[in-house]
């Protein structure tokens, strides 16, 4: 299937690792021009070189910390030289795991800045151009925790739910202008973040990490963690011209892990 992404300009957050890295590769393979965003400039340069070698097209890069209130400004300014962004992939890191009765106001502020305020501000800046051009795709990396809150991930459950509510709200405003707005819910995809969460749980419980990981995978009907490229394929489809009538949706990519109907 031709995804119609050739020559589209895509801004991908969290692009140096895990899900974002796989999404960047998937979009580059479809011929999209890329702006990669994460915090570490050196790592970004390495990722850009790797993608350039694979595709022949060198991505632009921008370093900004999504917990910083100035991040959306910085990233939107970096998108200027592209002359517009057609595909915006909202993604960054995840907040720390804490018992839900041990959260702190500073950590709530930081989590909401990263998971809701920065992505909403960035999307708000890029939406007018998408609407004027009559084409836009916003795809946010959310979490299964938006449907079934995950124990110990209170910051993530709440911050991402706020973003999901905004995505749904704005999707209705921009749908008639050819702009779609969707979220993808990873269940457990094998990335450095999931490995770190398993290691943290193993340390708290005093058991081997292999035991935690096996227990976690046993809760997934597919019987295994997902691969980043399996997740990236869903994002690439939602970014495509083929997905023009899918908007305001949250799509799970979880090997059947979520138990509810929606
Ligand atoms: N993997 C899963 O199964 C899963 C499940 C549910 C939710 N998620 C969520 O999906 C997102 C991506 O997860 P992942 O598994 O791909 O994680 P990952 O492998 O740790 O990658 C995170 C990416 O985000 C960047 N990043 C981290 N903190 C940032 C910040 N404050 N500002 C800007 N960029 C930042 C990282 O680069 P730098 O460190 O260089 O900035 C890296 O490129 C996270 O929000 C995660 O919580 C993942």
TrEMBL record:
SUPFAM superfamilies: NAD(P)-binding Rossmann-fold domains
Gene3D superfamilies on file: NAD(P)-binding Rossmann-like Domain
Pfam families, per database record: adh_short_C2 (PF13561)
Domain of life per record: Bacteria
Family per similarity comment: Belongs to the short-chain dehydrogenases/reductases (SDR) family.
Protein name in UniProt: 3-oxoacyl-ACP reductase
Organism per entry: Spongiactinospora gelatinilytica
């Amino acid at each position: 299937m031709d995804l119609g992404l050739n020559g589209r300009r895509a801004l991908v957050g969290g692009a140096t690792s895990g899900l974002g890295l796989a999404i960047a590769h998937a979009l580059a393979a479809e011929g999209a021009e890329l702006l990669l965003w994460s915090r570490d400039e050196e790592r970004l340069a390495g990722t850009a070189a790797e993608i350039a070698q694979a595709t022949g097209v060198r991505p632009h890069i921008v370093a900004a910390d999504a917990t910083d209130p100035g991040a959306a400004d910085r990233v939107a300014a970096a998108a200027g030289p592209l002359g517009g962004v057609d595909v915006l992939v909202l993604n960054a890191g995840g907040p720390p795991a804490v018992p839900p009765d041990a959260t702190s106001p500073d950590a709530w502020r930081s989590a909401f800045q990263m998971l809701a305020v920065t992505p909403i501000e960035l999307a708000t800046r890029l939406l007018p151009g998408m609407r004027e051009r009559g084409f836009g795709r916003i795809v946010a990396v959310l979490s299964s925790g938006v449907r079934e809150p995950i124990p110990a991930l209170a910051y993530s459950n709440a911050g991402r739910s706020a973003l999901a509510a905004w995505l749904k709200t704005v999707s209705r405003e921009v749908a008639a202008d050819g702009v779609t707005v969707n979220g993808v819910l990873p269940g457990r995809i094998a990335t450095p973040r999931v490995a770190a969460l398993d290691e943290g749980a193993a340390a708290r419980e005093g058991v081997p990490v292999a035991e935690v990981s096996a227990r976690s995978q046993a809760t997934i009907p597919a019987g295994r963690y997902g691969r980043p490229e399996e997740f990236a394929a869903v994002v690439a489809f939602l970014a495509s011209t083929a997905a023009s009538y899918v908007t305001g949706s949250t799509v799970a990519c979880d090997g059947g892990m979520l138990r509810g109907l929606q």
